[in-house]
TrEMBL record:
The lineage of its organism: Eukaryota, Viridiplantae, Streptophyta, Embryophyta, Tracheophyta. Keywords: Metal-binding, Zinc, Zinc-finger. This is Chromatin remodeling protein EBS-like. PROSITE patterns: BAH (PS51038), ZF_PHD_1 (PS01359), ZF_PHD_2 (PS50016). Gene3D superfamilies: 2.30.30.490, Zinc/RING finger domain, C3HC4 (zinc finger). The keyword Metal-binding applies. Pfam families: BAH (PF01426), PHD (PF00628). The keyword Lipid metabolism does not apply. Residues 138-189 form the PHD-type domain.
């Protein structure tokens, strides 16, 4: 352990009260909100130190949910999406309720099952200005929206773009049953009839699986 201020020392690990889960620097954690009707806050532990009175204080970097950021939640934001903010804070370790995993966007889309402790992040967020990094991402479909991993999409065999069934006048059930899909623009160019696609695969996936993840 390294010395910090007098009477305080850096702590290597902290066991969450009432559990056998051990938190270390770099871990992502769920922290108890002031209003217990709200979901827990999500943060990354940057530092831990004893408070000199037998307690532990943690310096954290907060993740924001879309509804907590300027501009609010938009249709392409997934249910488990978080933004890594530049907002740091120091809290009592007693407010840590559990551990979680914040995946990269690419790794999240490859999960076979999404658990309650799985989240993902594809943007850094400046809390003061409301700016995002990156400020541009790929868009898909006629609606020109970024990919939401909760939504099923189908791929055109012509242009290789991805489309939401609802934007193409289909239900999700219809989209799951189709064998081939060609968007209206490609169908016109090829003089083909508009049919549908057997590959309801998300744009970032390497295997032919449904875009909507099963939650356990």
């Amino acid at each position: 352990m390294a010395k910090t201020k007098q009477g305080k020392r850096d702590v290597d690990a902290y066991t969450i009260k009432g559990t056998n889960k051990v938190v270390r620097v770099g871990d992502c954690v769920l922290m108890r909100p002031a209003d217990t009707d709200n979901p827990p806050y999500v943060a990354r532990v940057e530092r831990m130190e004893s408070d000199g009175r037998g307690g532990v204080r943690v310096r954290v970097r907060w993740y924001y949910r879309p509804e907590e950021a300027k501009g609010g939640r938009r249709p392409f934001h997934g249910a488990k999406e978080l933004f890594l903010s530049d907002h740091f804070d120091t809290q009592s370790a007693h407010t840590i309720e559990g551990k979680c995993v914040v995946h990269s966007f690419k790794n999240y889309t490859k999960l076979d099952n999404v658990g309650p402790e799985d989240f993902y992040c594809r943007f850094d967020y400046k809390a003061g200005s409301g700016a995002f990094t990156p400020d541009r991402v790929a868009v898909y479909c006629k609606c020109e929206m970024p990919y939401n991993p909760d939504d099923l999409m189908v791929q055109c065999e012509g242009c290789k773009d991805w489309f939401h069934p609802s934007c193409m006048g289909m239900t999700i059930e219809q989209a799951k049953k189709i064998d081939h899909y060609m968007c209206s623009d490609c169908a016109k160019e090829n003089g083909a009839k508009r049919t549908s696609n057997s590959y309801p695969v998300p744009p970032n996936s390497d295997s032919k699986i449904e875009a909507k993840r099963r939650k356990r």
